[in-house]
Amino acid sequence: MFESISQSSSIDQSTKSGAAQAKLNEDLNQFLNLLVTQLKNQDPLDPMDANEFTSQLVQFASVEQQIYQNSNLEKLLNVEQTSQIANMVDFIGHTIEATGSSFHLENDSAEFTYEFETKPNSATITIMNSSGLTVYSGDAVNETGKQYFKWDGKNQSGTQQPDGTYTAVVSGKDRDGNLMSVAQTVFGRVTGAGAEDGIVSLFMNDVKTSMDKILGTRETKSTPTP
To answer: For the residues 119-123, what does the mean pLDDT come to?
Structure first.
């Protein structure tokens, strides 16, 4: 019990369990120092109740056991994440469809979809660059059903925009002028995979999407130009 007290320098405090273990070691050392001081200065005719500090030591042991279990769980989760990332290597180079509105313009081409639950009275598409500036605006199809939009990367003036991250905002209004809900998806070529805070994600260049947002995958039609 409490073997980790002498090994505090080897604790990885970047993990939650490591930080908890370091705090426990600090609290336990303070408790033991206080206990030793009290034992040295206790009245021999009225000694301290051993049951009290024994109970506190048992509580420390219980907490340490819980931290140990949490540490093992973190290790298992890390192994699982590593396994998932290894499995996602097969996605690299393929095109995926995922829920979201941010996409990567690559080789002057991008594709996304939108779908209204009911037919809108009017609908528009606005595309913004990574700085939030509008580079394209036009009418959307004011119908129900999944609609596909392919963008050639040109703005309203016909000027070609550079490859990079963009966001498509599709909005629709009913006859009363109220905004309507719309579902959007984006397509992109997978360039990498990773995990952060327990969430495993795929990367479409700078656009990151978690696995639970991926709807499908397909073979990339052509190899991007370097």
So the answer is: 95
Q: Which residues contact 134 (CB under 8 A, 6 or more apart)?
A: 126, 127, 128
| Among 104, 219, 226, 81, CA closest to 161 | 104
**Residue 111's beta-bridge partner residues?**
150
> In angstroms, how far is CA 181 from the centroid of its own chain?
25
Residue 115 in contact with residue 146, Cβ under 8 Å? yes
What Cα–Cα distance (Å) separates residue 135 from each residue in 158, 159, 188, 197? 10, 9, 19, 34
Does pTM surpass 0.70?
no
Closest CA to 17 of 74, 57, 60: 74
Residues in the chain: 226
Token pair 């996304």 is at which residue?
Answer: 112
Considering only CA atoms, which of 77, 92, 80, 107 is closest in space to residue 15? 77
Q: What share of the chain is helix, strand, coil (3-state, %, to 5)?
A: 35, 35, 30
pLDDT digits (tens, 9 = 90+) for 37-66: 665 666 565 665 555 666 666 676 666 666
43 Cβ partners below 8 Å, 6+ apart? none
Q: What crossing angle do the helices spanning 16-40 and 50-88 adopt, rounded to 10°?
A: 170
Q: For 185, how many CA atoms within 13 A lie in the half-sphere containing its CB?
A: 18
What is the spatial distance between Cα 226 and Cα 221, in angstroms, rounded to a whole number?
15
